[in-house]
Amino acid sequence: GQQLNQSPQSMFIQEGEDVSMNCTSSSIFNTWLWYKQEPGEGPVLLIALYKAGELTSNGRLTAQFGITRKDSFLNISASIPSDVGIYFCAGQLLNYGQNFVFGPGTRLSVLP
Amino acid sequence: EPEVTQTPSHQVTQMGQEVILRCVPISNHLYFYWYRQILGQKVEFLVSFYNNEISEKSEIFDDQFSVERPDGSNFTLKIRSTKLEDSAMYFCASGGGPNNEQFFGPGTRLTVL
In chain A, what residues touch B99 (CB-CB under 8 Å)? Predict the structure, then answer.
């Protein structure tokens, strides 16, 4: 099946640092979604991207739809302890229907 | 703010039993989804539902699974004869359009003994 890769798999950062993570594939996508999941809860939508090159912000979070349509990036500025969680990218394949393929996630830990 | 709700939050069942997981999608959404997440793994698509019929399903969604929208608000996932490997978190999601963002419910943790 279609596969998304996310890197890094996990990261430990100090509070106040900026964070960058990405999501890549060999396939072309027409929509990217970024979710955050905390233990025992459902994924919470952070940002949705619909056009190649699109750059969208949500507070301290900024995400970009890669120009090649095969990748997406999420940045978190000035991290705080409540940013801890697993960040999933989800992509909707071009001409492939409605379902979203999820990446394996990036686990973020923020040290005070 | 409208949200997707799911019941029960945790379901424990014996292998071979039938379970029904319930979801109430966001009221003006037309597209409904079920996903599964085995502990420690990524979210996996099961099925999408639109206009009272299945529009897509994955290879995980075999004959043991079925979905239904019995009334104007509920969306259910039935597993006819549960197996140990069905133990997972099951998430319902809904969206306003086929290419729109999907909003997830809090999930039902299914434990098959």
Answer: 30-31, 50, 92, 98
